[in-house]
Protein backbone atom coordinates (compact mmCIF):
# COMPACT_ATOMS: atom_id res chain seq x y z
CA UNK A 1 0.00 0.00 0.00
CA UNK A 2 1.17 3.50 -0.68
CA UNK A 3 0.80 7.15 0.15
CA UNK A 4 -0.27 8.83 -3.07
CA UNK A 5 0.68 12.43 -3.65
CA UNK A 6 -0.61 14.69 -6.41
CA UNK A 7 1.44 17.84 -6.99
CA UNK A 8 0.42 20.83 -9.11
CA UNK A 9 -1.92 18.49 -10.90
CA UNK A 10 -4.26 19.81 -13.58
CA UNK A 11 -5.88 18.24 -16.59
CA UNK A 12 -7.48 19.43 -19.78
CA UNK A 13 -8.75 17.17 -22.55
CA UNK A 14 -8.09 20.07 -24.97
CA UNK A 15 -4.68 20.11 -26.62
CA UNK A 16 -4.41 23.89 -26.18
CA UNK A 17 -6.53 24.89 -23.17
CA UNK A 18 -7.27 28.62 -23.16
CA UNK A 19 -9.25 29.27 -20.01
CA UNK A 20 -10.19 27.63 -16.72
CA UNK A 21 -13.33 26.28 -18.38
CA UNK A 22 -11.18 24.10 -20.67
CA UNK A 23 -9.85 22.16 -17.66
CA UNK A 24 -11.60 19.02 -16.38
CA UNK A 25 -9.38 19.28 -13.28
CA UNK A 26 -8.28 22.63 -11.90
CA UNK A 27 -4.81 22.78 -10.41
CA UNK A 28 -4.62 20.84 -7.16
CA UNK A 29 -2.26 19.41 -4.56
CA UNK A 30 -3.63 16.42 -2.74
CA UNK A 31 -2.43 13.52 -0.59
CA UNK A 32 -4.12 10.14 -0.17
CA UNK A 33 -2.69 8.73 3.06
CA UNK A 34 -1.48 5.13 3.19
CA UNK A 35 -4.11 2.66 4.35
CA UNK A 36 -7.07 5.06 4.46
CA UNK A 37 -10.50 4.50 2.94
CA UNK A 38 -11.57 7.55 0.97
CA UNK A 39 -14.76 8.33 -0.87
CA UNK A 40 -14.44 10.72 -3.78
CA UNK A 41 -17.85 12.38 -3.96
CA UNK A 42 -19.25 14.85 -6.45
CA UNK A 43 -21.91 15.27 -9.12
CA UNK A 44 -21.59 13.80 -12.59
CA UNK A 45 -19.01 15.62 -14.71
CA UNK A 46 -17.00 17.16 -11.83
CA UNK A 47 -13.84 15.22 -12.73
CA UNK A 48 -13.89 12.13 -10.47
CA UNK A 49 -13.11 9.58 -13.20
CA UNK A 50 -10.45 11.84 -14.68
CA UNK A 51 -8.73 12.06 -11.28
CA UNK A 52 -8.90 8.29 -10.74
CA UNK A 53 -7.57 7.56 -14.22
CA UNK A 54 -4.65 9.92 -13.62
CA UNK A 55 -3.74 8.01 -10.43
CA UNK A 56 -3.89 4.66 -12.24
CA UNK A 57 -2.07 5.98 -15.32
CA UNK A 58 -4.90 5.55 -17.83
CA UNK A 59 -4.87 9.33 -18.36
CA UNK A 60 -1.65 11.35 -18.54
CA UNK A 61 -2.19 14.68 -16.77
CA UNK A 62 -1.49 17.82 -18.79
CA UNK A 63 0.26 19.34 -15.76
CA UNK A 64 1.82 18.13 -12.52
CA UNK A 65 3.02 14.86 -11.05
CA UNK A 66 1.76 11.72 -9.29
CA UNK A 67 4.00 9.97 -6.78
CA UNK A 68 3.62 6.78 -4.76
CA UNK A 69 5.58 6.76 -1.48
CA UNK A 70 7.72 9.63 -2.69
CA UNK A 71 8.58 8.02 -6.04
CA UNK A 72 7.42 9.90 -9.14
CA UNK A 73 5.32 7.47 -11.19
CA UNK A 74 4.02 10.04 -13.71
CA UNK A 75 5.89 8.43 -16.61
CA UNK A 76 4.86 4.84 -15.72
CA UNK A 77 2.22 2.87 -17.63
CA UNK A 78 -0.86 1.58 -15.73
CA UNK A 79 0.53 -1.97 -15.55
CA UNK A 80 3.78 -0.65 -14.04
CA UNK A 81 1.98 1.26 -11.28
CA UNK A 82 0.73 -1.64 -9.23
CA UNK A 83 -2.82 -0.34 -8.92
CA UNK A 84 -6.07 -2.28 -8.97
CA UNK A 85 -9.00 -0.49 -10.55
CA UNK A 86 -12.64 -1.55 -10.58
CA UNK A 87 -14.89 0.16 -13.12
CA UNK A 88 -18.59 0.91 -13.31
CA UNK A 89 -19.24 -2.07 -15.60
CA UNK A 90 -17.81 -5.60 -15.32
CA UNK A 91 -14.40 -6.18 -16.86
CA UNK A 92 -14.03 -9.95 -16.91
CA UNK A 93 -13.13 -12.82 -19.21
CA UNK A 94 -16.43 -14.39 -20.24
CA UNK A 95 -14.92 -17.66 -21.42
CA UNK A 96 -13.00 -18.31 -18.21
CA UNK A 97 -14.42 -19.81 -15.04
CA UNK A 98 -15.06 -17.54 -12.07
CA UNK A 99 -12.05 -19.14 -10.36
CA UNK A 100 -9.75 -18.43 -13.30
CA UNK A 101 -11.00 -14.86 -13.53
CA UNK A 102 -10.12 -14.27 -9.88
CA UNK A 103 -6.81 -16.10 -10.20
CA UNK A 104 -5.78 -14.18 -13.32
CA UNK A 105 -4.19 -11.11 -11.64
CA UNK A 106 -2.23 -13.44 -9.32
CA UNK A 107 -1.05 -15.78 -12.10
CA UNK A 108 0.08 -12.68 -13.97
CA UNK A 109 2.34 -11.86 -11.03
CA UNK A 110 3.74 -15.39 -11.00
CA UNK A 111 2.34 -16.52 -7.65
CA UNK A 112 2.44 -20.22 -6.72
CA UNK A 113 -0.83 -22.10 -7.36
CA UNK A 114 -1.24 -23.02 -3.68
CA UNK A 115 -1.02 -19.36 -2.66
CA UNK A 116 -3.38 -18.42 -5.47
CA UNK A 117 -5.94 -21.01 -4.33
CA UNK A 118 -5.88 -19.72 -0.75
CA UNK A 119 -6.31 -16.12 -1.79
CA UNK A 120 -9.00 -16.80 -4.44
CA UNK A 121 -11.00 -18.86 -1.96
CA UNK A 122 -10.75 -16.14 0.64
CA UNK A 123 -11.96 -13.42 -1.73
CA UNK A 124 -14.68 -15.66 -3.20
CA UNK A 125 -15.99 -16.34 0.26
CA UNK A 126 -16.06 -12.63 1.18
CA UNK A 127 -18.04 -11.84 -1.96
CA UNK A 128 -20.20 -14.98 -1.74
CA UNK A 129 -18.90 -16.30 -5.03
CA UNK A 130 -17.70 -19.59 -3.56
CA UNK A 131 -20.70 -21.52 -4.93
CA UNK A 132 -20.06 -20.47 -8.52
CA UNK A 133 -16.27 -20.76 -8.73
CA UNK A 134 -16.35 -23.50 -11.36
CA UNK A 135 -19.04 -21.84 -13.52
CA UNK A 136 -18.19 -19.95 -16.67
CA UNK A 137 -18.43 -16.20 -16.08
CA UNK A 138 -20.46 -15.70 -19.29
CA UNK A 139 -23.50 -17.47 -17.88
CA UNK A 140 -23.82 -15.43 -14.71
CA UNK A 141 -26.08 -12.46 -13.83
CA UNK A 142 -24.91 -8.85 -14.15
CA UNK A 143 -24.60 -8.66 -10.35
CA UNK A 144 -22.41 -11.73 -10.16
CA UNK A 145 -20.22 -10.46 -13.00
CA UNK A 146 -19.64 -7.17 -11.18
CA UNK A 147 -18.80 -9.14 -8.02
CA UNK A 148 -16.12 -10.94 -10.05
CA UNK A 149 -14.79 -7.54 -11.14
CA UNK A 150 -14.66 -6.46 -7.50
CA UNK A 151 -12.94 -9.73 -6.61
CA UNK A 152 -10.32 -9.20 -9.31
CA UNK A 153 -9.64 -5.78 -7.77
CA UNK A 154 -9.39 -7.18 -4.25
CA UNK A 155 -7.45 -10.37 -4.88
CA UNK A 156 -3.95 -8.92 -4.90
CA UNK A 157 -2.63 -7.93 -1.49
CA UNK A 158 0.50 -6.18 -2.84
CA UNK A 159 -1.14 -3.28 -4.70
CA UNK A 160 -0.33 0.37 -4.00
CA UNK A 161 -4.06 1.19 -3.91
CA UNK A 162 -7.45 0.00 -5.06
CA UNK A 163 -9.51 2.48 -7.03
CA UNK A 164 -13.24 1.94 -7.39
CA UNK A 165 -15.12 4.00 -9.98
CA UNK A 166 -18.83 3.84 -9.06
CA UNK A 167 -18.54 0.03 -8.86
CA UNK A 168 -22.03 -0.63 -7.54
CA UNK A 169 -23.98 1.25 -10.22
CA UNK A 170 -25.25 -1.91 -11.95
CA UNK A 171 -25.87 -3.81 -8.70
CA UNK A 172 -29.40 -4.13 -7.34
CA UNK A 173 -30.13 -1.97 -4.25
CA UNK A 174 -30.28 -4.80 -1.70
CA UNK A 175 -26.98 -6.33 -2.74
CA UNK A 176 -25.47 -2.85 -2.96
CA UNK A 177 -25.91 -2.34 0.76
CA UNK A 178 -24.35 -5.73 1.48
CA UNK A 179 -21.34 -5.12 -0.79
CA UNK A 180 -20.73 -1.67 0.61
CA UNK A 181 -20.55 -3.14 4.10
CA UNK A 182 -18.27 -5.91 2.79
CA UNK A 183 -15.87 -3.41 1.24
CA UNK A 184 -15.73 -1.56 4.51
CA UNK A 185 -14.94 -4.80 6.37
CA UNK A 186 -12.29 -5.69 3.81
CA UNK A 187 -10.71 -2.31 4.36
CA UNK A 188 -10.74 -2.74 8.13
CA UNK A 189 -9.10 -6.15 7.77
CA UNK A 190 -6.43 -5.43 5.16
CA UNK A 191 -5.82 -1.69 5.67
CA UNK A 192 -5.65 -1.06 1.95
CA UNK A 193 -5.47 2.44 0.49
CA UNK A 194 -8.88 2.68 -1.15
CA UNK A 195 -10.44 5.44 -3.20
CA UNK A 196 -14.11 4.90 -3.86
CA UNK A 197 -15.77 7.18 -6.40
CA UNK A 198 -19.47 7.88 -6.10
CA UNK A 199 -22.03 10.60 -6.74
CA UNK A 200 -24.21 9.21 -3.94
CA UNK A 201 -23.63 10.91 -0.57
CA UNK A 202 -25.09 8.05 1.42
CA UNK A 203 -22.71 5.62 -0.23
CA UNK A 204 -19.78 7.96 0.43
CA UNK A 205 -20.68 8.62 4.04
CA UNK A 206 -21.17 4.96 4.93
CA UNK A 207 -18.05 3.68 3.17
CA UNK A 208 -15.33 6.16 4.00
CA UNK A 209 -13.25 7.42 6.92
CA UNK A 210 -12.62 10.56 4.91
CA UNK A 211 -14.81 12.01 2.20
CA UNK A 212 -13.21 14.11 -0.53
CA UNK A 213 -15.84 16.38 -2.07
CA UNK A 214 -15.28 17.55 -5.64
CA UNK A 215 -17.04 20.33 -7.49
CA UNK A 216 -16.26 21.65 -10.98
CA UNK A 217 -12.81 20.06 -11.23
CA UNK A 218 -11.72 21.03 -7.73
CA UNK A 219 -11.49 19.39 -4.34
CA UNK A 220 -13.60 21.69 -2.16
CA UNK A 221 -13.38 19.84 1.18
CA UNK A 222 -11.86 16.75 2.74
CA UNK A 223 -13.39 15.63 5.99
CA UNK A 224 -15.20 13.08 8.09
CA UNK A 225 -18.93 12.81 7.45
CA UNK A 226 -19.50 14.80 10.65
CA UNK A 227 -17.13 17.60 9.60
CA UNK A 228 -18.87 17.88 6.23
CA UNK A 229 -22.22 18.05 7.95
CA UNK A 230 -21.35 20.48 10.71
CA UNK A 231 -18.78 22.70 9.06
CA UNK A 232 -19.13 22.83 5.28
CA UNK A 233 -16.11 24.77 4.02
CA UNK A 234 -17.96 25.68 0.84
CA UNK A 235 -21.62 26.42 0.10
CA UNK A 236 -21.49 23.58 -2.47
CA UNK A 237 -20.68 21.09 0.33
CA UNK A 238 -23.50 22.62 2.37
CA UNK A 239 -26.21 21.90 -0.14
CA UNK A 240 -24.72 18.75 -1.72
CA UNK A 241 -24.34 16.95 1.63
CA UNK A 242 -27.45 16.52 3.75
CA UNK A 243 -31.03 15.76 2.90
CA UNK A 244 -32.35 18.33 2.29
CA UNK A 245 -29.16 20.37 1.91
CA UNK A 246 -28.14 23.49 3.81
CA UNK A 247 -30.26 26.65 3.47
CA UNK A 248 -28.05 29.30 1.90
CA UNK A 249 -29.26 32.90 1.83
CA UNK A 250 -27.65 36.12 0.61
CA UNK A 251 -27.27 38.52 3.51
CA UNK A 252 -25.77 41.80 4.53
CA UNK A 253 -23.49 41.68 7.55
CA UNK A 254 -23.07 44.47 10.07
CA UNK A 255 -21.99 44.40 13.74
CA UNK A 256 -22.87 40.74 14.34
CA UNK A 257 -26.25 40.99 12.61
CA UNK A 258 -27.21 39.47 9.27
CA UNK A 259 -29.98 41.20 7.34
CA UNK A 260 -31.89 38.98 4.93
CA UNK A 261 -34.63 40.73 2.93
CA UNK A 262 -35.42 43.08 5.79
CA UNK A 263 -35.25 40.47 8.57
CA UNK A 264 -32.45 40.86 11.10
CA UNK A 265 -30.76 37.76 12.51
CA UNK A 266 -28.15 37.84 15.28
CA UNK A 267 -25.23 35.68 14.13
CA UNK A 268 -23.11 35.84 17.25
CA UNK A 269 -20.04 37.65 18.48
CA UNK A 270 -17.60 35.57 16.39
CA UNK A 271 -18.80 37.37 13.23
CA UNK A 272 -18.95 40.88 14.66
CA UNK A 273 -16.11 42.18 12.50
CA UNK A 274 -17.78 41.27 9.16
CA UNK A 275 -19.54 43.82 7.00
CA UNK A 276 -21.15 43.89 3.56
CA UNK A 277 -22.53 41.18 1.26
CA UNK A 278 -22.11 37.55 2.41
CA UNK A 279 -24.10 34.32 2.43
CA UNK A 280 -25.63 32.81 5.53
CA UNK A 281 -25.86 29.02 5.75
CA UNK A 282 -27.84 26.95 8.22
CA UNK A 283 -28.93 23.34 8.02
CA UNK A 284 -32.68 22.49 8.09
CA UNK A 285 -31.98 20.32 11.17
CA UNK A 286 -30.74 23.29 13.20
CA UNK A 287 -33.51 25.81 12.51
CA UNK A 288 -36.31 25.96 15.08
CA UNK A 289 -39.87 26.81 14.21
CA UNK A 290 -42.09 28.36 16.91
CA UNK A 291 -45.82 29.08 16.87
CA UNK A 292 -45.37 32.37 18.74
CA UNK A 293 -42.71 35.09 18.66
CA UNK A 294 -39.67 34.51 20.86
CA UNK A 295 -36.80 37.00 21.22
CA UNK A 296 -34.46 36.81 18.18
CA UNK A 297 -36.94 34.96 15.95
CA UNK A 298 -38.08 36.02 12.48
CA UNK A 299 -41.64 35.84 11.22
CA UNK A 300 -42.12 33.46 8.30
CA UNK A 301 -44.98 32.14 6.16
CA UNK A 302 -45.43 28.39 6.12
CA UNK A 303 -45.99 27.09 2.60
CA UNK A 304 -46.24 23.34 3.08
CA UNK A 305 -45.17 20.56 5.37
CA UNK A 306 -44.09 17.20 4.05
CA UNK A 307 -44.35 14.18 6.32
CA UNK A 308 -41.48 11.77 5.67
CA UNK A 309 -42.42 9.31 8.41
CA UNK A 310 -39.35 9.65 10.60
CA UNK A 311 -39.30 13.47 10.23
CA UNK A 312 -41.18 16.41 8.74
CA UNK A 313 -39.89 19.03 6.34
CA UNK A 314 -41.55 22.45 6.48
CA UNK A 315 -40.99 24.81 3.56
CA UNK A 316 -41.20 28.40 4.77
CA UNK A 317 -40.94 31.80 3.12
CA UNK A 318 -38.90 34.60 4.66
CA UNK A 319 -39.37 37.66 2.42
CA UNK A 320 -38.39 36.48 -1.07
CA UNK A 321 -36.45 33.50 0.21
CA UNK A 322 -37.50 29.89 0.73
CA UNK A 323 -36.04 27.82 3.55
CA UNK A 324 -36.46 24.24 4.66
CA UNK A 325 -36.85 23.30 8.30
CA UNK A 326 -36.50 19.72 9.50
CA UNK A 327 -38.70 18.76 12.44
CA UNK A 328 -39.17 15.57 14.43
CA UNK A 329 -42.05 13.28 13.48
CA UNK A 330 -44.18 14.20 16.51
CA UNK A 331 -43.61 17.98 16.41
CA UNK A 332 -46.62 20.23 15.89
CA UNK A 333 -45.93 22.45 12.91
CA UNK A 334 -47.68 25.85 12.90
CA UNK A 335 -49.98 26.10 9.88
CA UNK A 336 -49.85 29.56 8.30
CA UNK A 337 -47.35 31.68 10.14
CA UNK A 338 -44.46 30.82 12.35
CA UNK A 339 -41.37 32.28 13.97
CA UNK A 340 -38.01 30.98 12.91
CA UNK A 341 -35.08 30.78 15.28
CA UNK A 342 -31.51 30.67 13.95
CA UNK A 343 -29.33 29.27 16.78
CA UNK A 344 -26.08 31.26 16.37
CA UNK A 345 -23.89 28.25 17.08
CA UNK A 346 -25.14 26.60 13.83
CA UNK A 347 -24.98 29.66 11.59
CA UNK A 348 -22.16 29.61 9.05
CA UNK A 349 -21.15 32.67 7.05
CA UNK A 350 -19.71 32.39 3.52
CA UNK A 351 -17.97 34.87 1.23
CA UNK A 352 -17.90 33.97 -2.49
CA UNK A 353 -18.95 30.45 -1.55
CA UNK A 354 -16.11 29.93 0.96
CA UNK A 355 -16.56 29.60 4.72
CA UNK A 356 -15.50 32.64 6.72
CA UNK A 357 -13.72 31.24 9.75
CA UNK A 358 -15.31 32.61 12.92
CA UNK A 359 -13.09 34.96 14.88
CA UNK A 360 -12.56 32.92 18.02
CA UNK A 361 -11.12 35.82 19.97
CA UNK A 362 -14.65 37.27 19.89
CA UNK A 363 -16.25 34.01 21.00
CA UNK A 364 -18.96 34.13 23.63
CA UNK A 365 -20.00 31.34 25.99
CA UNK A 366 -23.05 30.29 23.97
CA UNK A 367 -21.08 29.65 20.81
CA UNK A 368 -19.45 26.44 21.89
CA UNK A 369 -19.80 24.63 18.56
CA UNK A 370 -17.81 27.25 16.66
P1 LIG B 1 -17.13 12.39 -13.43
O1 LIG B 1 -16.45 11.07 -13.36
O2 LIG B 1 -17.10 13.16 -12.14
O3 LIG B 1 -18.54 12.28 -13.94
P2 LIG B 1 -15.31 12.98 -15.62
O4 LIG B 1 -13.93 12.92 -15.07
O5 LIG B 1 -15.78 11.80 -16.39
O6 LIG B 1 -16.34 13.35 -14.46
O7 LIG B 1 -15.45 14.24 -16.55
C1 LIG B 1 -14.98 15.54 -16.19
C2 LIG B 1 -15.11 16.46 -17.39
O8 LIG B 1 -14.23 16.05 -18.43
C3 LIG B 1 -16.50 16.47 -18.03
O9 LIG B 1 -16.77 17.78 -18.45
C4 LIG B 1 -16.38 15.53 -19.19
O10 LIG B 1 -17.26 15.87 -20.22
C5 LIG B 1 -14.93 15.74 -19.62
N1 LIG B 1 -14.33 14.50 -20.19
C6 LIG B 1 -14.22 13.31 -19.58
N2 LIG B 1 -13.59 12.41 -20.35
C7 LIG B 1 -13.29 13.06 -21.50
C8 LIG B 1 -12.62 12.68 -22.72
N3 LIG B 1 -12.13 11.46 -22.88
N4 LIG B 1 -12.50 13.63 -23.67
C9 LIG B 1 -12.97 14.88 -23.51
N5 LIG B 1 -13.60 15.30 -22.39
C10 LIG B 1 -13.76 14.41 -21.41
MG1 LIG C 1 -17.18 9.13 -13.74
What does this structure look like?
The longest helix has 18 residues, at 173-190. The protein is built from 8 helices and 21 strands. It has a 6-stranded mixed sheet with strand order 6-7-8-3-9-10, with helices on both faces. Strands 13-12-11-14-20-21 form a 6-stranded antiparallel sheet. A 5-stranded antiparallel sheet has the order 15-19-16-17-18, with no helix packed on it. The protein has helices at 48-56, 98-108, 113-126, 142-154, 173-190, 201-207, 225-230, 235-240, and strands at residues 4-11, 25-32, 37-41, 63-68, 71-72, 83-86, 161-165, 194-198, 210-215, 218-223, 247-254, 257-260, 263-266, 276-282, 288-290, 298-307, 311-318, 321-328, 337-341, 348-351, 354-355. It has 370 residues and is of the alpha+beta class. 23% of the residues lie in helices and 32% in strands. Bound molecules: adenosine-5'-diphosphate and magnesium ion. The site of adenosine-5'-diphosphate (ADP) has 10 residues, from helix 1.
What is the topological layout?
Layout: E1 4-11, E2 25-32, E3 37-41, H1 48-56, E4 63-68, E5 71-72, E6 83-86, H2 98-108, H3 113-126, H4 142-154, E7 161-165, H5 173-190, E8 194-198, H6 201-207, E9 210-215, E10 218-223, H7 225-230, H8 235-240, E11 247-254, E12 257-260, E13 263-266, E14 276-282, E15 288-290, E16 298-307, E17 311-318, E18 321-328, E19 337-341, E20 348-351, E21 354-355
Parallel strand pairs: 3-8, 3-9, 6-7, 7-8
Antiparallel strand pairs: 1-2, 1-4, 4-5, 9-10, 11-12, 11-14, 12-13, 14-20, 15-19, 16-17, 16-19, 17-18, 20-21
The protein binds adenosine-5'-diphosphate and magnesium ion.
Amino acid sequence: MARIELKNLAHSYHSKPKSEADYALQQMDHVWEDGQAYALLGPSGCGKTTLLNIISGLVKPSEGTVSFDGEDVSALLPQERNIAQVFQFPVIYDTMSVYDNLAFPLRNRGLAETDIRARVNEVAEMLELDDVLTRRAANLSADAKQKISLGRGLVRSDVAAILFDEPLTVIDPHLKLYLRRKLKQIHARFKLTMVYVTHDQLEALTFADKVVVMHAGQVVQIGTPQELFENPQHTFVGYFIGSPGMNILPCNMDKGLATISGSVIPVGAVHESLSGAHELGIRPEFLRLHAAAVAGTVKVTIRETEDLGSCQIARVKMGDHSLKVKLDEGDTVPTEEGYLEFPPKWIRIYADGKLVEPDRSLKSDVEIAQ
